[in-house]
Description:
The radius of gyration is 16 Å and the shape is globular. With 180 residues, the chain is α+β, with helices and mostly antiparallel strands. The longest helix has 15 residues, at 108-122. Helix 1 crosses helix 3 (45-56) and helix 4 (108-122) crosses helix 5. The two termini are 18 Å apart. The chain is built from six helices and seven strands; from the N terminus they run βαααβββαβαββα. Strands 1-2-3-4-5-7-6 form a seven-stranded mixed beta sheet, with helices on both faces.
Amino acid sequence: MSDIWTGGKLRLRGVEPEDWRGFRELARDLDGVRAAGLVEPPRSDESFRGWTAERAGRPPGGEAFRLVVEDLADGGFAGAVTVGEVDRRAGRFRLGIEIGRAYRRRGYGREAVSLLLGYMFREERFHKCEVEVFAFNEASLALFRGVGFVEEGRLREHEFVAGVHHDVVVLGITAPEHLG
């Protein structure tokens, strides 16, 4: 059996305390945080160190978890993927992804999402994954559609970002659609 956490470009791994700089850079990327609706006031380096150390100390898995996307070529912090809003009875979950500016549009997002879906569908026996993407976030819409997600609906003027209400596109993929 192959390593389910490693692809051609990247490895998904647990959060380590030294990842705080990578998470700080993701948070400072205004375009990236706006695309995810996560704009917050600036945080101190100490806050990032504490936040990351706490996550590094959590046991693996669970109902919600975050993994680091690590570049295989240089071991660099390329981003993170998150699983949340798990409904085991219905067999569905939601995922989120953040890819650092230097790694965008180079296949890291697609590979990270595919690896995570493989784990959730094959090992955790989930049936469906859902994502919500702002309608203006064309890169994320293309990423998820490229992996096989299908648009299931649109929530009109659903979220407020950068002074404007925006539509949110709901996309989903089932285990058979992903696994073939």
